[in-house]
Amino acid sequence: MFPALVLMFAATLYRVGYAFFGAPVAWANFSPLAAIVLCGAAHFPKKTALLLGAGPIVVADLFLNAHYHAPLIDAGMFSRYLSFALILLLGFWVRKQRYYRMLFLLAAALASSFLFYLITNTGAWMATADYPKTFPGWWQALTIGLPGFPSTLFFFRNTIFSDLFFTALFVFVQTSTSRARITETTPSTVRIPIHRRQS
Questions:
Q1: Contact 36, 48 (CB under 8 A)
Q2: Which long-range contacts (CB under 8 A, 24 or more apart) does 63-67 make?
Q3: Of the candidates 11, 1, 17, which has an alpha carbon nearest to the alpha carbon of residue 169?
Q4: What is the rounded distance in angstroms from the CA atom of residue 129 to the CA atom of residue 141?
Q5: pLDDT: is 116 or 22 the higher one?
Q6: Of 41, 89, 99, 165, which one has the fewest beta carbons inside 10 Å?
């Protein structure tokens, strides 16, 4: 578990560091937090999953809002936290799967990307005055976004890539750790020499 916790801590630092190093547009929405929430719920005890899921999200939001001189609590937090809550439930659902769990986890990572995309952009459509409160306005929020910014589908693509990448990285770390633990606890075979009795 320890390497996975280190991975989660490093991934949280990555999200905060992204903003402090200029937030390059090409890497926008390439974030590990959804994968942290999903994998934590799928592999760790529930209390640990809640702590490791909510902790990095809240801490990173506080740092980023302070960095951008935004209110500590903004309107976008509701849609983001709703998304992460549903992703947490997806992780708990994956935990209950007895067979093909890794396959379900990757499918849940894709579902997480879609949930985050749909909920957060719908929240932006509702909260942003620049979007008409009509179906075309909602569709604009889901596709081209606002003028002067990359399209919403660009951010969605990065979300999918990051969720799959960090989920796969988490699985790799967990699998490598489990194999190492099994190797360490397996007793080595001791060969006892058999001496032939001479007459």
A1: no
A2: 63/16, 63/19, 64/15, 64/16, 64/19, 67/19, 67/20
A3: 11
A4: 12
A5: 116
A6: 99
- Are 150 and 158 a contacting pair, CB within 8 Å? no
Contact assessment for residue 84 and residue 38, using Cβ atoms and an 8 Å cutoff:
no
Q: What is the mean pLDDT of the chain?
A: 83
Tokens read off for 41: 């719920």
pLDDT of residue 185: 56
- The answer to whether the predicted template modeling score (pTM) of the entire model surpasses 0.85 is no
CA gap 115, 86 in Å, rounded: 8
Residue 40: count other Cβ atoms within 10 Å of its Cβ.
25
